[in-house]
Task: structure prediction
Amino acid sequence: MKLQRARSFRHGRIEIIPMIDVMFFLLVTFMLASLSMQSLNSIAVNLPKGEAESLQHREPITLTVTRDSHIFIDKTPATLEQIAFVLKPLLKTNDMAVVVNADSDAPEGTVVQAMIQARRAGVEKFLIAVKH
Result:
């Protein structure tokens, strides 16, 4: 004779929906943290639109020209005459590239003159910053 139990035995279940919520929360947290760690030593300007590949340098030197023709090298103010003297110590022998971060309303003549002065300091490549 078989005795029946008062309660039936239930198998445990693993609920996956809370785990998915936690994984999405962690994904968003890590994405925001990695975006906040990105640093570009430049002044905020209104960049022109364009298509370009992402920059793969460690810490690039930035040459910023604002809409009112102010020039900055890594957030340090400079004049056209000072660009070559300020850039020379910053350039390394293996990385002779400078990111040109010019406002879309900046005078083209000022941007070109700043690039010419940077070329005198030994800059071999110019990378133009654009916004997607």
Q: What stands out?
A: Strands lie at 61-65, 71-73, 76-78, 97-102, 125-128. The helical segments are 17-37, 83-90, 108-121. The longest helix spans residues 17-37.
